[in-house]
Structures are given as structure tokens and as C-alpha cells.
Amino acid sequence: VQLQAYGGGLVQPGGSLRLSCAASGINFRLRVLSWYRQAPGKERELVASITAAGRPNYADSVEGRFTISRDNSKNILYLQMNTLEPEDTAVYYCYTLDRGSGYWGQGTLVTVSS
């Protein structure tokens, strides 16, 4: 199983980024997929998740600004992040639970700063 997250970078406040997570070795279309983030000095937190049926769920802090989606034909998970704030600065990880085991991507750094 491999999850590879990419798309992070430096963006100004109010800007946008799209993160992607390419998955292999799992039955992608059947799995709940999630994005987590970990800011410096803070615990890792759930940002958004999406069910196999495509139903999303968001943390209150990103509701209305972030959109999680999935492409089952390409085995890719996305996170569209709009109206970014300095408080969104963190390493972002994709995650899934497959056959009883949890798998993390390697993380991609998002820095929101002017």
C-alpha cells in the first residue's frame, strides 16, 4: 500500500492550493479517505474525509473553504483549499484504513504567509 501526497507549497493569505494523494495497493473505490494536518507544535487533526459514496465531512475550521473529492478511475484523492489563512499552515497527510490497517501518506507542507 502506498499513499503519495503532493501539491503543497507557499501561498499568500487568501490564496488557493489543490492537494492530491495518489493511492496504490488498496481497493480505492471502497475506502473512506481522509486528509489530516499537523501544524508546528500541535497535534495532528482531521481536516476532511469522504466516504466511498462520495459524502464529505469537514472540520469546522475549514467548512466552506476546503473541498474534498475523489477520482475512483485514477485512484486519486483531492483537497481543494481556498481562502487560505496563516492558521492553515501545516503538513497535510492523506490517510485511509484498509483491511484493518491504517496507512498514511508522507505529507506535503502548506505554508500560508505573506
Write structural notes for this entry.
With 114 residues, the protein is mainly β. It is 0% helix and 54% strand. The strands form two sheets. Strands 2, 4, 5, 6, 9, 10 and 11 form a seven-stranded mixed β-sheet that branches. A four-stranded antiparallel β-sheet has the order 1-3-8-7, with no helix packed on it.
Give descriptors for this structure.
114 residues; mainly beta; globular
Short structural description:
The chain has no helices and eleven strands. The chain has strands spanning 2-6, 9-11, 17-24, 33-38, 45-50, 56-58, 66-71, 76-81, 90-98, 101-104, 108-112.
Radius of gyration: 13 Å
Q: Which percent range fits the helix content? A: under 10%
Mean pLDDT: 96
Going by helix content, strand content and strand pairing, the class is mainly beta
Counted beta strands = 11
CA-based shape: globular
Write the H/E string, N to C.
EEEEEEEEEEE
- Beta-strand fraction estimate: over 45%
Distance between the termini: 37 Å
Number of H/I helices: 0
Biggest sheet features: 7 strands, mixed
Low-confidence stretches: none
Helix and strand arrangement:
Layout: E1 2-6, E2 9-11, E3 17-24, E4 33-38, E5 45-50, E6 56-58, E7 66-71, E8 76-81, E9 90-98, E10 101-104, E11 108-112
Parallel strand pairs: 2-11
Antiparallel strand pairs: 1-3, 3-8, 4-5, 4-9, 5-6, 7-8, 9-10, 9-11
